[in-house]
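P.,

For your records, the input lines for the assembly:
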Amino acid sequence: MIEPPSLEELIAEFSSLPGIGNKTARRLAYHILSRPREQTVRFSESILKAVERVKPCSRCFVFTEGDICSVCNMRKEAKTICVVEKSSDILPFEKSGVFQGLYFVLGGVLSPLDGVGPETLHIPFLIERVKKEGFQELILALGSSPEAESTALLIDRLLEGTSIKRSRLARGIPMGSDLEFVDEITMLRAFEGRVLF
Amino acid sequence: MIEPPSLEELIAEFSSLPGIGNKTARRLAYHILSRPREQTVRFSESILKAVERVKPCSRCFVFTEGDICSVCNMRKEAKTICVVEKSSDILPFEKSGVFQGLYFVLGGVLSPLDGVGPETLHIPFLIERVKKEGFQELILALGSSPEAESTALLIDRLLEGTSIKRSRLARGIPMGSDLEFVDEITMLRAFEGRVLF
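Structure tokens returned:
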């Protein structure tokens, strides 16, 4: 191909991002090389800066620049902990303002075939924290894949015999969705979980 | 917001790319921070490397790592020159193999309101080259916006009185498109340009 090697490499790097196909990767690469040089240097530096500074909170694994994230810092007295799969999963909670407790990021769900076991996900650390810190409720806010389900079940089982209340988010029809297009599993869950007036 | 500043900055940088909205930018930023560190450092470096190495060819302004691009180097004897708006516009020509001549990248189209005049687009340099190097044909392969049309007209006018043949790409129905969904202008052009059996 007539593209210079460093441009080809850049296209390959963009292609490795989720949801970015070959055509989009090429468009992005050409675009950033057509912008003023300073702007592109700044983009490169912002990646490096973020990767140097952002790390998982040592208590809950939410992305932070400090040792302890702002949520862990501000809500030391919280009695509720919400377990999510990845750091960005806490955003809808924070945006809605519905939750004032702590979080715990697993960093994935159990997947024995990929070598992801309870230790990789810091599950022993979670259980220890929960037992030691006297939380009143643990909310499991994982996805609905079979792997997520079995991760939730394992955590629930490991806390059997303790007094902590375990809950999970309600499944049902999301706001604004046309009933006609709701999938079968969602309908099943919404029906099973129907609420009395 | 609870996102650390360097992560917020990274999201803003991704948002500045074409076709990348806020949600996608956030997804990409979280993704690259969740990947192995080396991979993200390599991504940052590939941007910097490309921006350091890639520059416009000194003869035709196609992106290259050398002083002169591979096309200008390989096709020194070519008698045809194809004028395009941006470097990536030469890819479909090269992929189809239909063209064996030289290119000239304008770097945009005339846009007086944005301060883009003939000099910014190297039009004087193009005219001088064309007159001096004895090309037989100049193909205008610009877009179909009013600005592109007037850019093509200007170049055509500046070459009036010379013996060089000036042509433009045919407009018409693209391959594989359903006639029902062809827009009016394309239909108009395809009709006007209809070809006898």
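Two observations worth noting. The radius of gyration of chain A is 21 Å. Residues 5-53 of chain A form a domain with the Helicase, Ruva Protein; domain 3 fold (CATH 1.10.8.420).

Regards
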